[in-house]
TrEMBL record:
It comes from Roseomonas acroporae. This is AAA family ATPase. It comes from the Bacteria. Pfam families: AAA_25. InterPro entries: P-loop_NTPase (IPR027417).
Length: 376
């Protein structure tokens, strides 16, 4: 194919435009013998040509679809909601391969767990029990791949590394490098980082600097954190969120009765990857099988079901609630339970629903507020 004339002249080659192929547009051609980086002022630098010519390896998923190599994630929840159960499950799945909650680690990889508070006996019990909750888990691979560095495993005079301190950061990075870890799980922020005021943006700078150093080292990180007083987001300054590709919140479901309170609804506060059917609000519970083994269970979130039902009812296309539920693929029982929960949550009233369904039966349009919101 004949190459059209250059549309611009760069210092080390030509900027050319090919006839519309896929997305069309400008393509910068690599030149033979051109290096893909250089050092200036003590820093590695690249021209645009060098950047586009460099064969970066594809970042592989550590736990598909949640986390890829070199990415960072915050996992927050209220005390007792189950965040440590989830972070330990992630560490085990990635270290031994396998899946839970629909998230899969195809290849076992080296992981370092940095724990700031849990008693060693509790850590031992949880890890032993959780092995059974990971489908396709390879215990032999995980036995060597998962390195545990715990505060409660140290002597009383040992100074444990501080994520907010340069010396502590250097010690942690050195352990990560020695183990060859591709993932650091840090549980949790409050016990691992000494900052004067979590609500002050400036206080987050040392921790952000450490997270960015991990990225430079191509090491992924899961930082476990507590929620704020409302339980609806993470605690502290919003500046902490800047470096994370993923922020997953767990809002406690006290009525679900999970093992040691591990029952929650997932809330994806931030996610930079591709959409996936597991990356939606789900009601999750850690329970036990009849044999006594731990087992994770996830269902579509009830609050999401309420939203779906109310949106369907608001169309005015259904003469009764059973028909509205059937349009969502639900049976009468699920529909009835969802309506009951919607009313109990104050999202609608029985009278409002009856008026909507009556209007549908009479062939009348349902009035919708000017804002476009359903009338409940």
């Amino acid at each position: 194919m004949e190459v059209p004339p250059a549309t611009a002249d760069l210092t080390s080659g030509r900027l050319v435009k090919f006839p519309a192929a896929d997305a069309g547009g400008a393509i910068i051609l690599p030149r033979a013998g051109v290096t893909t980086s250089r050092r200036q002022g003590g820093l590695k630098t690249r021209t645009l040509r060098e950047l586009l010519a460099h064969p970066f390896p594809t970042r592989q998923p550590l736990l598909f679809p949640v986390l890829r190599q070199g990415e960072s994630m915050m996992l927050w929840a209220q005390t007792g909601a189950g965040k440590t159960w989830v972070s330990l499950s992630m560490a085990l799945a990635i270290a031994g391969g396998g899946s839970f909650l629909g998230w899969t680690a195809e290849t076992p990889r080296r992981v370092m767990l940095l724990d700031g508070e849990m008693a060693m006996e509790d850590l031992q019990d949880r890890l032993r029990d959780l092995c059974a909750a990971i489908d396709g888990f390879d215990p032999e691979a995980a036995a060597d791949n998962l390195l545990i560095v715990a505060r409660q495993d140290q002597g009383a005079d040992t100074v444990f590394p501080d994520l907010a301190n340069p010396d502590g950061q250097a010690r942690i990075l050195e352990m990560v490098r020695q183990h060859g870890a591709e993932l650091l799980v840090a549980d949790n922020f409050s016990t691992l980082a000494e900052v004067e005021d979590e609500n002050a943006a400036g206080a987050m700078n040392p921790v952000l600097a450490f997270l960015l150093r991990l990225k430079q080292a191509r090491v992924a990180c899961i930082l476990v954190h507590h929620s704020g007083k409302t339980g609806q987001s993470y605690r502290g300054s919003s500046k902490l969120a800047a470096t994370f590709e993923v922020i997953l919140g767990l809002t406690r479901d006290e009525a679900a009765g999970g093992v040691q309170g591990a029952a929650f609804t997932t809330f994806w506060e931030k996610f930079r990857g591709e959409p996936h059917d597991t990356l939606v609000p789900r009601d999750v519970r850690l329970g036990r099988s009849e044999a006594g083994a731990l087992a994770w269970d996830a269902q579509p979130a009830e609050r999401d079901n309420i939203r779906l039902f109310l949106e369907a009812a608001a169309t005015g296309n259904f003469p009764h609630q059973t028909a509205a539920g059937a349009s969502l693929g639900w049976d009468k029982t699920k529909t009835s339970k969802t309506v009951t929960k919607a009313i109990a949550a104050g999202r609608t009233t029985r009278r409002q629903l009856d008026e909507i369904f009556e209007a549908a039966r009479e062939g009348c349009a349902v009035e919708v507020a000017e804002s476009g919101e359903p009338p409940f």
